[in-house]
Design goal:
273 residues; alpha+beta; three-stranded antiparallel β-sheet; 52% helix
Length: 273
C-alpha cells in the first residue's frame, strides 16, 4: 500500500510539473519578444540579486555626433579631403558647410607666444554681429574703431602643415595683440570714385585695343603715296570711311544696365571688406 501511495504521489507531482511547463510555454509563446525579454530580465533580477552589473553595456567606445565632428573637423576642406569620404567625414563636412566663413573668431590669450587660435562663426554670432560689427576676439565686445586684418593662418591639422588667408575684425587693443610679433596686412575699403576710375580705365583700354587693331588692318590695305598733300587727303578720306564703317559695323553700344545682383554686391562691398 505504501508503494502504491508513493507511486501515485510521484505521478501526481510529475503531471502537475508537466502541466505547469505546458502553461508556462503557452504563456511565453502568447506574448511578443520584447515582453518575453522583460520577463526573463525580471526573473533574473529576482533570483540572482546583485548580478545586474553583468547586464550593463560597455559605453567606453560610445560617441555622439559632436565627438565625430571634433575628430573629423577641417578648418578648410579641399578636394583631397573629400575623396574616400565615410559617414563621419560627411557629417563633419555638412557641419562645416553651415558655418559662416567670411570672418573668423580669434583667441588672443597667448599672443605674446605668437600663438593665435581661429575658428569660423556660428549662427548666433552672425545674428549678433560678433566678429563683424563687434570685435572678433572672443573675450572682447568692443564695437568702435574696428579694423580689418588679413592673416596668413598657419596651423597643424591631422599631422599636416596647412595655411589659409582669413579676415579678422578687431578693436585697437586687440589689433595690437594680433601684431605683437609680426605686422599683419590691414584691409581698407576703396572709395567709390577710385572704383569708378578703375572701371573707366579698363573700358578705355579695351576700346583703344579694338581701335588699334581695326586701324592696323585698314592701313595695310591702303597704298602709300609720295606727296604730302596726297597723304593728307588719303588719310582724311580713310578716316571718314573708317568712321562710316564703324557706324554700320554693328549695333550702337548702349550703357549696360545693372542687374539686381550687381546692386546687391555694390551694397555689401562696404560691409564685407
Amino acid at each position: 500500500m505504501e508503494k502504491l501511495k508513493r507511486a501515485s504521489r510521484d505521478e501526481g507531482a510529475s503531471q502537475t510539473k508537466r502541466h505547469k511547463q505546458a502553461n508556462y510555454r503557452v504563456n511565453l509563446l502568447a506574448v511578443d519578444a520584447y515582453t518575453r525579454h522583460k520577463q526573463f530580465v525580471n526573473n533574473y533580477m529576482l533570483y540572482y540579486p546583485g548580478a545586474t552589473q553583468i547586464l550593463q553595456r560597455d559605453r567606453s567606445n560610445d560617441k555622439t555626433d559632436i565627438d565625430v565632428i571634433h575628430e573629423n573637423h577641417r578648418f578648410l576642406w579641399t578636394a583631397a579631403d573629400e575623396e574616400n569620404k565615410n559617414w563621419a567625414k560627411e557629417l563633419a563636412k555638412k557641419y562645416w558647410d553651415k558655418l559662416f566663413k567670411e570672418y573668423c573668431i580669434s583667441d588672443l590669450s597667448c599672443y605674446k607666444d605668437n600663438k593665435i587660435a581661429l575658428r569660423w562663426r556660428v549662427d548666433n554670432e552672425v545674428i549678433t554681429g560678433k566678429g563683424q560689427f563687434s570685435c572678433g576676439n572672443k573675450r572682447c565686445s568692443e564695437s568702435e574703431g574696428l579694423k580689418t586684418w588679413e592673416v596668413n593662418f598657419g596651423y597643424m591639422e591631422h599631422g599636416e602643415k596647412k595655411n589659409a588667408l582669413v579676415k579678422l575684425r578687431l578693436c585697437p587693443d586687440c589689433s595690437y595683440k594680433l601684431n605683437y610679433c609680426h605686422q599683419k596686412k590691414e584691409v581698407t575699403k576703396i572709395p567709390q570714385k577710385q572704383k569708378q576710375i578703375k572701371k573707366s580705365t579698363k573700358k578705355h583700354k579695351r576700346k583703344h585695343k579694338r581701335k588699334y587693331k581695326k586701324s592696323k588692318h585698314g592701313s595695310s590695305s591702303e597704298e602709300s603715296s609720295n606727296d604730302e598733300d596726297e597723304d593728307n587727303s588719303t588719310s582724311k578720306e580713310g578716316s571718314y570711311t573708317h568712321k562710316e564703317s564703324n557706324v554700320w559695323s554693328g549695333p550702337v553700344s548702349l550703357p549696360e544696365k545693372k542687374t539686381r545682383e550687381d546692386e546687391f554686391e555694390e551694397y555689401f562691398e562696404d560691409m564685407f571688406l
